[in-house]
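Team,

Forwarding the record for the chain on the shared tracking sheet. I've put the sequence and predicted structure together so nobody has to dig through attachments.
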Amino acid sequence: MRAAPGQRCGPAPVISLRVRKISIRDGCVSLVAGLPSAARSDTARLRIERASREGPATVDQATIHNRRWSILGVLVVSLLVVVLDNTVLNVALRTIQDDLSATQSELEWAINSYTLVFAGLLFTFGLLGDRFGRRRMLMVGLLLFGIASAVSAYASSPEQLIAARAFMGVGAAAVMPATLAIITNVFEPEERGRAIGIWVASVGVSVVLGPVLGGALLERFWWGSVFLINVPVVVVGLALIAWLVPESKNPVPGRLDPGGVLLSIIGLTLLVYGIIEGGERATVTEPLVWGSVVGGVVVLALFIWYERRSTHPALDVGLFRNPVFSASVTTIGLVFFAMLGTFFFMTFYLQIVRGYTPLETGLMFLPFAIAQTVFSTLSSAMVGRFGIRAVTATGLSLVALSLVAMGFIDEATPLWFLLVAFFVQGAGIANVMPPATTAVMAAVPREKAGVGSAVNNTMRQVGGALGVAVLGAVLSARYRNGVDDVVSVLPEGVRHAAAESLGTTMMAAERAGVVDQVRGPAFTAFLGGVHWVAFLGAAVAALSVVVVSVFLPGRSRDPAPTVTAGAPEAPEPETART
């Protein structure tokens, strides 16, 4: 059959949707997407909305496509500067304490002020990026982060440092969801998994390289250098973003949801604050701890109730009815629970029990970074061949195996054993995070990529904070139970404080001149706690295997429907003609 005169049968903008009907009309084959008839209307609106998403014609789609890997490089650098700084700080804490005469509580808040603000505002900035522009939000976030970094570098009191770190958290909360949302809009589905794999690898690499960079800087410069190094990177990053990165946003954002935004900020802040305090105090029985956690959960439950009844919700809670989306975000939270909890106790093991310097400790984690870098970039191809369920279950099994191995370490564990365990853990994480993150973003329309990215990153933060708090509390409790008799040789006035951690025990023993009497029993008590924590982390990873095995799909030749172009939230059918 021939097309009618003047009728073009060229390609229409393609949306990847499950096809329900094939029809031949006027000489053209039409593939009709299987959407409810109530959603069908004129396709002109779809094209207008797509044009709005793509922005002005100054940068056409062909140019963006050609620049896509350069754009990814700029986004990775933006992400690296944010994540690296938080890990670098841990190495500088002792120097900062001496120079600013900071108390232990003030040092903790130099870390926690950033974490608290960052986690509390992630969702809000993801929403604002969708509404006002992701590139704009990325640049604002980087600018804030750079200014706050300079202020942190020259802080003259603990209070100034805490305040500056809080503003760094504001900037980071704007940067992180914007990077992933831009990737979702720049890359098409066939390359998006690989791009997200590189994005995930950069996070893992920065976590590991932070102590290495921090140790190198502190050997040559003052502690402020760990913050000041961010400034030139931010300046270069802003210039490259302005030059390369296209703007994208939701063309029809609807009304703002101030009630939902406010509830999300209050709920997340209370929850994360309670988790942090529980970890610092190593108890959940104090009213401040459980009150904050319960209050956060109640407010977040109210947030969900409010969003379900809102005509313009900030978060479409119906997403959680999608088992793939729910299983993926749950897996992200659980794996960060296990991973960051592991990094927490392994850092103390390497520095105190094994006597490594901060720089040497960072180098010990390099196998993790190498494995994550290599396997994250391959995970998309692995999913294409074996399916998301098989790949993520295998990755989680490797994480569990590495944690079981760490449950048997002692003072004389061979170096190769530790390096292999870190490599296996990195390979496991690399086969979990990219597929899970891709699944989360695939469930969200491109117009709301910022919200999807924010949910993904919020689960990372909450899961990681919970892992450090819970596993740290278990380690602390086991250590105190095992070291009670040991601290009896210390002066009576310092015994209680000395029993709080291995570091304080050894410092008190050194001052009292009884290091030889205390070292062996204290190390034994600490390692006993490490074994408990490692096995608990392995159990969490094993639980994640069950979650993905039940709820994630296996290998399928008929993939689930996904929207790959700038379709509205309730997608309209598109007829692709050939």
